[in-house]
Amino acid sequence: MNAPDAPAPTAADRPAHAASPAHASDELRAALSEAGLHAPVTEGAADADVRIGPLAPADARQLARLIRTGTKRTLKTARALREICAGHRIELPGLRVRQGRITLGPVRVEDAARLARVLGAVPPPAARPAPLADADAAFVGALLGRVFPEATGGGALSVSVREEAPGLLDLGAIDARTARRLVRALRF
Asked: Is the predicted pLDDT of residue 67 greater than 80, yes or no?
């Protein structure tokens, strides 16, 4: 007597660690489907562009809610950081949330120096010229880069001098947890 043929494996039988979809469009299509949203997703040449086709109004509202829910804590942290910096008269006009991280963006050297002082850095000597020179931008950048991890309990911040605009520093992106620690450091 022959044993009955085994049933073909189903998706539930496959290991959970199976390879993820190869293209960004496949990942997006799968995520939309899992969320119960119906939208055509197409990819451009060499996965360079991913386009979401027309959405029904209800699906568009649901997608907006999902995005807000998924980023709520990060957006709230970015708002708190913006507010506390404004309270210290530190302008961060480029502060944005991008890909789940908070990008601090371009900042004037004077604002970067104020941020470094609020975080506990020793202020630069009073003998510095009124308009900060290129060397001062590098000095302030190094000072902020050094004091930032001390004040936040470990989070690193990339700081670079803009060659085409020496009065500006570019501050990199930090994760939301580091940003929350930065907010706490700025409060006290």
From this structure: yes
E-assigned strand segments in the chain:
41-43, 50-52, 96-98, 101-108, 159-161, 168-175
C-alpha–C-alpha distance, residues 113 and 130, integer Å: 13
* 122 class by beta-carbon count within 10 Å (0-12 exposed, 13-18 middle, 19+ buried): exposed
Model confidence over 132-172: pLDDT tens digits?
Answer: 445 589 999 999 999 999 999 988 999 999 888 888 999 99
Rounded-to-integer distance, Cα 79 and Cα 10, Å: 46
- Hunting for tokens 């029904």 — which residue is that? 56
CA distances from 105 to 42, 85, 94, 112 (A): 32, 14, 4, 11
pLDDT of residue 2: 46
- Kindly write down the DSSP assignment for every residue of 98-139, as one continuous string: ETTEEEEEEEEHHHHHHHHHHTTPPPPPTTS-SS--HHHHHH
Please determine, for residue 4, whether its predicted confidence score (pLDDT) is greater than 50.
Answer: no
